[in-house]
Design a protein that fits this description.
Blueprint lengths: L8 E6 L4 E8 L3 E9 L1 H5 L6 H23 L8 E7 L3 H18 L3 E5 H12 L7 E6 L4 E8 L2 E7 L5 H11 L6 H9 L24 H16 L6 H27 L3 E5 L6 H14 L2 E3 L3 H4 L4 H12 L20
Parallel strand pairs: 1-4, 4-5, 6-9, 9-10
Antiparallel strand pairs: 1-2, 2-3, 6-7, 7-8
Helix pairs in contact: 2-3, 4-11, 5-6, 5-7, 5-8, 6-8, 8-9
The structure holds 5'-O-[(R)-(carboxyoxy)(hydroxy)phosphoryl]adenosine (KG4) and zinc ion.
5'-O-[(R)-(carboxyoxy)(hydroxy)phosphoryl]adenosine binds next to helix 5 and helix 6.
Length: 343
C-alpha cells in the first residue's frame, strides 16, 4: 500500500519486564511488525523474573529486536513519524534500557519521542483487532502487577471503578502455580493444568470488599489454596494439582466476571474489553463471553499474543498520545511505580 501523507508510523519499544519487544504500527491500529524476544527460558530456573538478569538480557537483545521490527515492516527508521516507548510502570532497570534506547534513536533520527504508560498500552491492544472499538467502554485490566476495573473515557483517559486490595490477579496465578509445583510462568501453566481438573473440586472463598462493589481481593483465595496444600501434605494425601488449579482459577474468574459485567452495563455503555496477561486466560475469556452474551454486552478481547507484553500495543497507545500532541523531552526517565491515569 502506498504511504498516504497523513499516515502516522510509530516505532514502539517495550522492555518493562521480561520481554524485549519492538513493533511498527500504522495509524494506531495496523501492526506492520511485532517482534518479541522472551526471556522466560532464562528466568524459569529461578522461579520468577530476576530484575538484574532482565536488564542485562534487554541490553543484549534490544538492537536486534528493533532492527528486526523495521525489517519485518519493510521500513527504515527514516520512514517513522515518531518513536514510542514504555517508561513505566515496571522494573526500573528493565525500563531504563528501552527508554535510553528510544531516546538515542529518536535523537539520532530527529524524530519525536512519546513516552507510553504500560497499562495504557495493554488497553490499546484492544484497538488493534477491533477497528470499531472507540471510547467510552469498560475495561478489566488484569496483569502481573495490576488489577483494575476502569471506564476508558477517551484514549488514554481512565476513570477507576475498582482495584485489587492485595494481590494482582496474575500475581495470585503465579504464587499458586509455584505452590502446586507448576513453576514459572504461572498463569499459562495453571490455565493448562485446569483443563484436566474439576473446577468444583474445592470451594475457595470469593472475597467481597465491604462498601466497594468493584474492588477485588485475591489473597484469601490464594491462602485457601496454600492451606489446602499444607493440609493434604500433613495428611499424607496426594496433591491434586489439576483440581486445585481448576478450582482456584474458577474462583478468580468468578470474582472478575461478577464485577466486570455489571460495571460494563452500568458505566461502560454496554461494552467491555479486557487487557493484560491474565486476559489470555482461556477460562476467563469463555466465562466473560458467555456472561456478556447473556447480558447483551459487546465483548472485546485481544488475541492471546497481544494480551501479554508486546510492543504493538505500545505503538497503538503511542499513536493516540502522539495525535493528541503528547511529546516527551530528552529528560524522559523510567517511572517504575507510575500510577494508572498518570502521564
Ligand atoms: O501483562 P503481562 O504480560 O505483564 C505485566 O504487565 O504484568 O502479565 C503477566 C501476567 C503473569 O502473572 C502471568 O502469569 C499472567 O499474566 N498470565 C496468565 C495467562 N497468561 C499470562 N494468567 C492466567 N492465564 C493465562 N493464560
Ligand atoms: Zn504487561
Amino acid at each position: 500500500m502506498e504511504r498516504k501523507e497523513r499516515d502516522v508510523l510509530i516505532l514502539a519499544v517495550e522492555s518493562s519486564c521480561d520481554e524485549t519487544a519492538a513493533a511498527v504500527v500504522r495509524n494506531g491500529r495496523e501492526v506492520l511488525s511485532n517482534v518479541i524476544s522472551s526471556q522466560i527460558a532464562v528466568h524459569t530456573r529461578f522461579g520468577g523474573v530476576v530484575p538484574e538478569i532482565a536488564s542485562r538480557k534487554h541490553i543484549e537483545k534490544i538492537n536486534q529486536v528493533i532492527t528486526q521490527a523495521l525489517d519485518d515492516a519493510g521500513k527504515e527508521l527514516a520512514d517513522m513519524t515518531a518513536i514510542g516507548v514504555t517508561y513505566g510502570p515496571g522494573l526500573v532497570g528493565a525500563l531504563l534500557v528501552g527508554v535510553a534506547e528510544a531516546k538515542a534513536i529518536a535523537w539520532a533520527a530527529g524524530k519525536p519521542l512519546v513516552g507510553v504508560h504500560h497499562i495504557e498500552g495493554h488497553v490499546a491492544a484492544n484497538y488493534i483487532e477491533n477497528p470499531d472499538l472507540k471510547p467510552p467502554f469498560a475495561c478489566l485490566i488484569v496483569s502481573g502487577g495490576h488489577t483494575h476495573l476502569v471506564v476508558v473515557r477517551d484514549y488514554g483517559e481512565f476513570e477507576i471503578l475498582g482495584r485489587t486490595r492485595d494481590d494482582a490477579a496474575g500475581e495470585a496465578f503465579d504464587k499458586v502455580a509455584r505452590a502446586v509445583g507448576l513453576g514459572y510462568p504461572g498463569g499459562p501453566k495453571v490455565d493448562a493444568a485446569a483443563k484436566e481438573g474439576d473446577p468444583h473440586a474445592y470451594e475457595f472463598p470469593r472475597a467481597k470488599v465491604e462498601g466497594a462493589p468493584y474492588d477485588f481481593s485475591f489473597s484469601g483465595i490464594k491462602s485457601a489454596v496454600l492451606n489446602e496444600i499444607n493440609r493434604a501434605k500433613m495428611a499424607g494425601e496426594e496433591i491434586r494439582v489439576a483440581d486445585l488449579a481448576a478450582s482456584f482459577q474458577n474462583a478468580v474468574v468468578e470474582a472478575l466476571v461478577s464485577r466486570a459485567v455489571p460495571a460494563a452495563k452500568e458505566y461502560g455503555g454496554g461494552r467491555l474489553a479486557i487487557a493484560g496477561g491474565v486476559a489470555a486466560n482461556s477460562a476467563l475469556r469463555t466465562a466473560l463471553a458467555a456472561a456478556c452474551a447473556k447480558e447483551g454486552i459487546r465483548f472485546y478481547y485481544p488475541s492471546p499474543l497481544l494480551c501479554t507484553d508486546n510492543a504493538a500495543m505500545i505503538g497503538s497507545a503511542a499513536y493516540y498520545e502522539y495525535i493528541r500532541g503528547a511529546r516527551s523531552g530528552w529528560d524522559l526517565n523510567a517511572v517504575p511505580n507510575l500510577k494508572l491515569g498518570e502521564r
